[in-house]
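Hi team,

Below is the intake form for Phosphate transporter from Streptomyces termitum. Please confirm the fields before the structure is written into the shared record.

FORM ID: S-0412
PROTEIN: Phosphate transporter
ORGANISM: Streptomyces termitum
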Amino acid sequence: MEHITLLLAIVVVTALVFDFTNGFHDTANAMATTISTGALKPKTAVAMSAVLNLVGAFLSVEVAKTISGGIINEEGIRTEVIFAALVGAILWNLLTWLLGLPSSSSHALFGGLIGAAVMSAGWSAVNGSTIVTKVLIPAVAAPIVAGLAAAAATKLTYRIKANPEAKATAKGYRAGQIASAGLVSLAHGTNDAQKTMGIITLALVTQGVVAPGSNPPLWVIVSAGMAIALGTYLGGWRIIRTMGKGLTDLQPQQGFAAQTSAATVILASSHLGFSLSTTQSCSGAVMGAGLGRKGGVVRWSTATRMFVAWGLTLPAAGLVGAGAEFLTKQGTWGIVLVAVLLVGGSAVIWALSRRQPVDQHNVTADDLDAPAEAPGVVTTAIAAVTPPPAAGSVAAVADEGLKSTIPTPGPTDPAAPPAPAAAV
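The structure came back. Fields below:
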C-alpha cells in the first residue's frame, strides 16, 4: 500500500462508499420477504444478513476479476475514470433508494464505468462482447429464471405439504425462510462485495500498484466485505417495504420458495463469473412466488415502475459517469467540483428522505402498504391453471377463520329472557 497516492486514496474511499450504498440498497434482496411474513424481526434480520454478507465476501473472486479486467480495457484508463464511474453509480443508487425502487447497484456501477471510460478514451475502451455475455444476457435471464423457479417451487410447496395444520405448516416454512434468507445473504456477499473489490483492484492497476489480471489484495477483500456488511446492517427500509409488501402479499411458503430460488441463481452465477444483479434475481423470484400461489396477485403498477428503473439504470448512471469524467479531465478543479457535487447531491437526497422516513419501526405498517390492485391478465391466467390447495389445508384455514370470527359466549344474565330455540 506504499504506492497509494492522494487521488487513489480518494477513489478507494469513494468505492467503499459505493459498497456501503450497495449494502443498504440491496438488504431487501435477502430480508424483505422474511420481514414481511414475520419470520424475523426487522433489526434481527438485517443483523443476520450483514454478518453473512461479510462471510460471503471471502468465498470467491471470480466476479471481481470480471470487473477489474473484463468490462473495460485496463490500458490507458486513468484513475479519474474510476472516480467518475463511482459518482454515477452512487447518485443513481441513492435516487432509486429515495423512490423505494429495487434497481440494480451492479448495473449502476457498470453504467458509470462504461460512460466514464467512453468519455475518457472512446468506445474502444469498452469490451462489448464481455458486456453482452456477462452483463446484458444475465440481466435479462436472471429474473426470468429465478421467477420461473420460484413459481414452480411455490406450486410444489402448496401441493406436497404433508401437515394439514396451517399454523404448524407456517411455522416450519418460517424456519425454512430464515435458512434460505441466510443463503441469499451469503450469495449477495459473494457476488456484490466482489464488484467493489474489482473496481478498487482496477484503480490499483491504473496506478501500477498491482499488475493487470491480479486477484484483489487481502486488504481490499476485507474492507469491501466490511463496507457492504455495515450498509446491510443499517437496512434499506424503503426498498424492503417495496419488495416485501409492494410487489405481492407473501405467505411463508412463498417466501421460502422465492429466497431459495434466488440464492440458487446468484450462487451459480457467481461461480461462473457472471456479474448479475442480485436485485433483479430476487425481485423476479418474489413475483414468481406471487404468481405461483392460487389467488396471489402481483401489483403490476409497482412492477412496471421497477422495470422502468431497471432499463434506465445503465444509461442514466452512464450519463452521470460521462459527465463526471468530462469534468475530471479539466484538471484538479474538475475533480474537486465532482467531489462537491457528489457530496451535495447525496445530502439533498438524504434531506428529501427525511420528509417521510421509513425505518424498522414502520417498514411493515399497514398505512404504508401498496393499495389493493385487481389481478392482471398474467395473474388471472396462471391462477386459472393452478390446482386448489389440499382439502385438509382448506379445512384447517376455514376452521381457523371461524374461530377468529365467532365470539366466545359471555356469562349468562339471569334477568335476560331465554334464547329462542333453534328451528329444526
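SUMMARY LINE: Residues 145 and 223 are 32 Å apart (CA to CA).

Thanks, M.
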